[in-house]
Amino acid sequence: MRSSYPAYDRESVRFTLDRQPGFPEFPILAPFPKTKATDWTIARGDFDGDYAKLHASYQHRSPLTCFSEQEKTIQQNLALLGSFLTLFAGSRNRVVRLLDRPMRKICIDWLSEFNHPLATKFFGWLYAVSKAYMHRTRIYPIKYTFREKLRFYGQMVSLDRWKQFRKKRTYRGERPGQTLGGPASI
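^ that's the sequence the OP posted. Answer follows.
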């Protein structure tokens, strides 16, 4: 009997949120040269070894063939929604923390199932805005003017939208200073 990949992914997100992290990421497994995980996926026939066709974002759809298209959608949605849910799980505000359980139920059990490109784009926007907020308030808590905050959020959201959803995808083989088996990043 085949295991349920989405159930494992949901469990992983819940496990991480239970630890109330300041800012986690939920990347999707991507093959990297000379790793045991990659060797295993190639041996199973789940990856063909062509690193150049991998997407530049580790929150993009899985390149592995062992997942169905629906499972790939759920993975990507959970990768985006997981960081958004950290706003509730890791908050110091008691009222916001009260929203943690209902938001988990809605996002992990229900919204992650949505199989529409517009839903995933919306989840990408939630991810980008929540990531920018957590960077500004939890990782680098620097005082900003209102104008600086707007600029910061605009840049962060633009960068994440470019990585995830631009028309022509950026694949790792096209990046200058690629990190997968190529020269060091510039």
